[in-house]
From TrEMBL:
Residues 9-355 form the FAD-binding domain. Pfam families: FAD_binding_3 (PF01494). Belongs to the UbiH/COQ6 family. InterPro entries: FAD-bd, FAD/NAD-bd_sf, Ubi_Hdrlase_CS, UbiH/COQ6, UbiH/COQ6_monooxygenase. This is Oxygenase.
Amino acid sequence: MTKTPSLHSDVLIVGGGMAGGLLALLLADQGLAVRVLDGAAEPVWPEGAPALRVSTLNEASYWLLRHTGAWQYLNPQRVQPYRHMQVWDHDGTGEVNFDVTEAGAEALGWLLENDHIVAALYRAGTDRECLDWQCGAQVAAVRRTPEGWRVSAGDGDYSADLVVGADGARSLVREAAGIPGGPRDTGHHALVATIETERPHGGCARQVFLESGPLALLPLFNTAADTEEGTGDGRHCSIVWSGWPGFIEERLTEDDDAFARALNQATAEVLGPARPVSPRRVFPIQERHASSYRAPGLALVGDAAHVIHPLAGQGINLGFLDVGVLAEELARVHQAGLPLADPAALARYERRRRADNLLMQQAMRGFKMLFERREPALRWLRNTGLGMVDKLPPARRLFIEHALGRAGDLPQLARPCQSIMEP
């Protein structure tokens, strides 16, 4: 997708993942000349068994993708909406259940493979004449010169009015700008895998809090095995099992039978006996939060700016909101004829996003600490709190609003648009 021969662009985005790809579409729709330097190979459409790396998208993220047209390129057979949520404490009686009917929404969220989202964004980018998305463009250096930022990738030395770091937790852009960004060890590792269950998941996202850490069972789309067996009901889930490093390492190294026993004990066989049907992968969970989301001529979005514990599945949703707000602020200055790197605009972006992201990070940290403590008083508090959320309408509404991504200072493109709503 090479459309802009000049080495200078209005906006240069380092990183072509989900956040960087969405930002590229939103800015190209404003008529800006946008270049993406993506170190990965050209995205391909996923096929066959579900990939291990998946994301839960909330309503705000859904609308951002719909507004850019990327949603229409997704393969609907690989998109799994979930219309129910179940959260419970393994050691107590506290439990919360939500249903889409009380949310007034199409779904509580959607489960998609990360590669699937990136492929749809890339495909939508081919429709934008002013977007130059360069794959395999590994960035070698980011440096500030008297004339502005320069980014070296391959044989090119690129410049732009505004450089955006969307290059992940170990952001080279953040490092080049001298912005501290962690990391902070959470004391948890996460194991991801695909499992098959005896009973269909019923489009319900489940999470159980264990002594070792939270375990999420996220519903996946119908697989070939479901179709071949004639059930038509999804019996595959993606699991994210967070816990102490030694505990997770034990789960990684044991054989499939032993792992299945541990999994079934942890979930109390909520969907009947389950077994792994994919390799298991483990990664350490580290929090990061950049001390600033901006520098002169530069901004950070997504994991380059913040990384939170995955227990609520909000990481990419926060990143998409970063992108939506930044695009909104850049549209204002562009329409006003001001420089894209206008310091006031970047300050507004940071003010609108940093506090909300920090609050979510601290909330996830608090949840983790609360549920890993075993003192009787804290166990009583957890279960009482879950029971109150389940029974009190105001608490339920607040929980649902946050789960759907309706709370806070939303950019306009993260809201429904009547002209593109489903009939």
